[in-house]
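Good morning C.,

I know you're traveling, so I'll keep this short. The sequence:
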Amino acid sequence: MKRHTTFIGVFALMAMMMFMTMCCKHGAANEPLLVDSVVVDTSTVVGKNNGARYHLALNVKTLADSTYRGLNIALIDSLLTPNIVDLYDTVGISPRERIEMYIKSNFAAYKAFYGTVYAEEPQAGTANTDFRLTTEIERNDDGIVNYIGTIESIQNGQTTTYATALNINLEQKRILALADVVPDPSDEKFVSKIVKQMCEQIGVSDLPSLESAGYFNHTPPYAPENFILDNDAITFIYIPGEIADREKGEIRVSIPR
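The tokens, ready to paste straight into the viewer:
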């Protein structure tokens, strides 16, 4: 089947990509944590007239020290969930190059899919997608760095906003898993603390009441890997649709450490 596809501005604004050096204040010392920022605003269009438009706006902060290159790549991949094929080609690349790979791969997949759609149905309606990501880096008094990405995804006018949090042990140059912080995250007593706190937030008395209110209807309670570790508490983040109807939005539950 012959395809008629027009691509406009695949990287029309990639020239706007730039690095800015910033500082993130140390919570327990006077030395600043040097941070770089990769800023990208670009889009591609598939199809004629009112075709499918994919817009990406990224502001991704990374640790400026070159010794954190591998950690920076892991942070980017954790937030942007790249094509699995791309993961085999990251040796020696910079954060900026990694993001360029992500954009190229995603635009190619988008054009391949919607190119087929518009080739078969030239009058198909619009299928616009906007993806916006901003990141923040904060260091708490324990020396743990919180890396928080705020994601806004807009598809056909429907907006979903949520946060993805990662916690970094700088000395070990690695992202902490929940099991590094909590001996057994699946322990019933630990999970019950989350349920109890959520009940207080919602204004119900127990798990059955919580389920009746629309939470944990399709999965038993659990502690997610999406969490923020601060000085006194662990804040768990459930993205929209994870444990309740998407309309309830992002859900956060904090329990003492």
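Safe travels,
E.
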